[in-house]
C-alpha cells in the first residue's frame, strides 16, 4: 500500500478522533501499560465519508492480496461491521468469530455458514499484539477453513504482534500504520516533531517507560 493511501487513512482517523495522540498525558491500557496513543476505530462507523473510504480500502486490500478469497470473517466485535460492509462491496458472504462459544442455543463460536475448505480472509480493525486476530485465525482453521490472511484498518507494528502473526503462519495487510500516522500528526501539528521517535520507542518496547522522560 502506498504512502499516499496510508497517510490519507491516517489523516481520516485523526480527523474524526478515532486515534488519539497524547504523549504528555499517557493513556493507561487494561494491561497497566502507559501509552501515548489510543485507537477507537469504532468511530469510523458514525463518520460516513471516512467509513466509505475505509471500506473501499479494505475491499481493495482483499482484491490485491487475496484474489481467491471466498468469504470474509470479522473479529468480534470490532471487525464485524467492517467485514459486513466490505463483503457487500465484494459481493462475498461473511460471518464472524466470537471470542468464545455462546453459552446458549447452538453454542456457536463461528457465526455464518462456513464450509470446510472455504478460502477465508479475517477482517480486524486494529492490530496491536495481534491476539484477537490470531485467535480468530486459529478458530477458523480448527473449523476447516483455509485462512488466506488478515486485513486491518490500522497497525501499530509492535514486535509482539509481528511475532504472533509469524508464529501463526499468517500475514496481515493494513490500510495505515503508526509511522504514517506520526508523519501526518507532525504535519498537522497534532504533536511536536520530537515526539515521533519517543512514540516509536514506545511501540518497539511498550513495557519500557523511558520514552516518557523529556530528556530522552
What secondary-structure arrangement, pairings included, does this model have?
Elements lengths: L2 H13 L3 E3 L5 E2 L5 E2 L1 E3 L8 H18 L5 E5 L4 H11 L3 E4 L12 E2 L7 E9 L3 H12 L3 E10 L3 H9 L4 E6 H10 L7 H10 L12
Parallel strand pairs: 5-6, 5-8, 8-9, 9-10
Antiparallel strand pairs: 1-4, 2-3, 6-7
Helix pairs in contact: 1-6, 2-3
Low-confidence stretches: 102-106
Overall morphology? globular
Number of helices: 7
The structure class reads: alpha/beta
The termini sit apart by 32 Å
Q: Specify Rg, calculated over alpha carbons.
A: 18 Å
The main pleated sheet reads as: 6 strands, mixed
Strand order of the largest sheet: 7-6-5-8-9-10
- Strand elements, count: 10
Q: How would you spell out the order of helices and strands?
A: HEEEEHEHEEEHEHEHH
Mean pLDDT: 91
Q: Provide the β-strand percentage band.
A: 15-25%
| Overall helicity | 25-40%
Amino acid at each position: 500500500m502506498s504512502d499516499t493511501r496510508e497517510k490519507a487513512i491516517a489523516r481520516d482517523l485523526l480527523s474524526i478522533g478515532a486515534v488519539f495522540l497524547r504523549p504528555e498525558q499517557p493513556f493507561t491500557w487494561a494491561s497497566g501499560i502507559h501509552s501515548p496513543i489510543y485507537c477507537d476505530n469504532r468511530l469510523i462507523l458514525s463518520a460516513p465519508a471516512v467509513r466509505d473510504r475505509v471500506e473501499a480500502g479494505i475491499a481493495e486490500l482483499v482484491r490485491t492480496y487475496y484474489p481467491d478469497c471466498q468469504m470474509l470473517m470479522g473479529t468480534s466485535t470490532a471487525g464485524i461491521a467492517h467485514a459486513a460492509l466490505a463483503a457487500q462491496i465484494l459481493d462475498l458472504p461473511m460471518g464472524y468469530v466470537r471470542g468464545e462459544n455462546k453459552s446458549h442455543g447452538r453454542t456457536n463460536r463461528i457465526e455464518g455458514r462456513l464450509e470446510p475448505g472455504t478460502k477465508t480472509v479475517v477482517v480486524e480493525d486494529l492490530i496491536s499484539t495481534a491476539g484477537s486476530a490470531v485467535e480468530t485465525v486459529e478458530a477458523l482453521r480448527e473449523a476447516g477453513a483455509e485462512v488466506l490472511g488478515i486485513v486491518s484498518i490500522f497497525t501499530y507494528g509492535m514486535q509482539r504482534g509481528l511475532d504472533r502473526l509469524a508464529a501463526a503462519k499468517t500475514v496481515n495487510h493494513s490500510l495505515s500504520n503508526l509511522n504514517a500516522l506520526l508523519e501526518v500528526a507532525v504535519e498537522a501539528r497534532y504533536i511536536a516533531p520530537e515526539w515521533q521517535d519517543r512514540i516509536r520507542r514506545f511501540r518497539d518496547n511498550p513495557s519500557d517507560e523511558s520514552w516518557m522522560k523529556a530528556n530522552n
